[in-house]
Amino acid sequence: MEAAAHGAKLEGGVTIGILPGTCREDANPWIDIAILSGMGHARNALIAQSSDALIAVSGEYGTLSEIAFGLKMGKPVFVLDCKWKIEGVKRARSPQEAVEFALALIKNQ
Q1: How many domains is the chain partitioned into structurally?
Q2: Fewer CB within a 10 Å sphere, N or C end of the chain?
Q3: Rg of the chain, C-alpha, whole Å
Q4: Quick one: angle between helices 43-50 and 61-72, nearest 10?
Q5: Tens digit of pLDDT for each residue in 54-91?
Q6: How far apart are the first and last CA of the chain?
């Protein structure tokens, strides 16, 4: 998540981090707005619901739960280096392609 936030900041974006705990200092240095959920992995539902599109990068079961929540909520989900084959996701070949896919969908809504 730190790399994604850093990339967003380099492009002039405002970054929001929905943190699993209750300590603002746990946010990476690229987060502008830290939301303290105190919910652990259950925060993944908040992340999916608050997103227009989700981009999942590699990851483990926490990432898999974000993908599942996103799909269940009808959100477009794009994956990079995903080790699972999941119906309904679109695979991207690069971070740039994933962002282009997501932005194109959001602009058409």
Answers
A1: 2
A2: C
A3: 14
A4: 50
A5: 999 988 999 999 999 999 999 999 999 999 999 999 99
A6: 26
Which amino acid type is present at position 59? G
Q: Find all residues with CB under 8 Å of 33, minimum gap 6, and list them.
A: 14, 15, 16, 17
Give the whole-number percent of the chain exceeding pLDDT 70: 100
Q: b/e map of 11-20 (b: 16 or more CB within 10 Å)? A: eeeebebbbb
Domain-located, residue 45: no
Identify the CA nearest to 64 among candidates 82, 40, 51, 76.
Answer: 82
Q: Which domain holds residue 15?
A: 1-38
Q: What is the mean pLDDT of the chain?
A: 94
Nearest residue to 4 via CA among 76, 43, 55, 69: 55
- Residues 67, 34: Cα–Cα separation, whole Å: 22
Are the C-beta atoms of 73 and 49 separated by less than 8 Å?
yes
Q: Is residue 43 part of a domain?
A: no
